[in-house]
TrEMBL record:
Signal peptide: none annotated. The lineage of its organism: Bacteria, Bacillati, Bacillota, Bacilli, Bacillales. CDD domains: trans_reg_C. Keywords: DNA-binding, Phosphoprotein, Transcription, Transcription regulation, Two-component regulatory system. SMART domains: REC (SM00448), Trans_reg_C (SM00862). Residues 127-224 bind DNA. The modification 4-aspartylphosphate is found at residue 52. Residues 3-116 form the Response regulatory domain. Coiled coil: none annotated. This is Response regulator transcription factor.
């Protein structure tokens, strides 16, 4: 049974989600203390977090950033905000997906299952390391290393780099990467992929890997 931390200040919606998720064999933990969210997450150690943006006091963007310092637990943002920039910020902060209110509870469960499948697939890869030249990807802890320098990757960044390294020298289409990340294209946003690739590029640059990922216009990405 997967434990899910529900961080939503609307009592009625929070209770409704909790009741529905029980039917799908999840173990919901309903958060009512919006001051110590990081400590609650550490104590509960959930498999996945549902996080509203508009919270009393500090918003969900802040808490996502704090949680990412502590854990790589999957985080799905839930918000009434519909601006593209809100989605971009949510993903930049380390969110794994974004659901706009109002939403179908069936879609919520589908997105949760997709995120959990991605998370589990990373944990059950067969090899320990994937190496291309001097670039090494640790498949057990999602660290990338280059000439003694390391960087921690989020699940999405890891999946993108894993796919590009497996197909080094080949153009990998955006559609192929999105299918690998989200499994079902109806649940993705094109901006999300761009944000994750740019974030991955920045982390590679920080450890000394310059211009590793090339954008091929209207085709996809290439690792050289």
């Amino acid at each position: 049974m997967y434990k899910v931390l529900i961080i939503e200040d609307d009592h009625k919606l929070r209770s409704l989600m909790g009741q529905y998720l029980v039917k799908w064999n999840f173990q919901p933990v309903l958060v009512e203390d919006f001051v110590n969210i990081d400590q609650i997450a550490l104590k509960e150690n959930p498999h996945i977090i549902l996080l509203d943006i508009n919270l009393p006091g500090t918003d969900g963007f802040y808490w996502c950033s704090k949680l990412r310092q502590l854990s790589d637990v999957p985080i799905i943002f839930i918000s009434s905000r519909s601006e593209s920039m809100d989605i971009v910020i949510a993903i930049n902060m380390g969110g794994d997906d974004y659901i706009q209110k109002p939403f179908s509870l069936e879609v919520l469960v589908a997105k949760m299952n997709a995120v959990l499948r991605r998370s589990n697939s990373i944990q059950h890869l067969e090899k320990d390391m994937l190496t291309v030249g001097e670039l090494t990807l640790n498949l057990q802890n999602a660290f990338v290393e280059f000439r003694g320098k390391k960087a921690a990757l989020t699940k999405n960044e890891f999946q993108i780099l894993y796919l590009l390294m497996k197909k080094t020298g080949q153009i990998v289409s955006r559609d192929e990467i999105m299918r690998a990340l989200w499994e079902d294209e109806q649940f993705i946003d094109d901006n999300t992929l761009t944000v994750n690739v740019n974030r991955l590029r920045k982390k590679l640059e920080e450890i000394g890997v310059e211009d590793a990922i090339t954008t091929k216009k209207r085709q996809g990405y290439l690792l050289q």
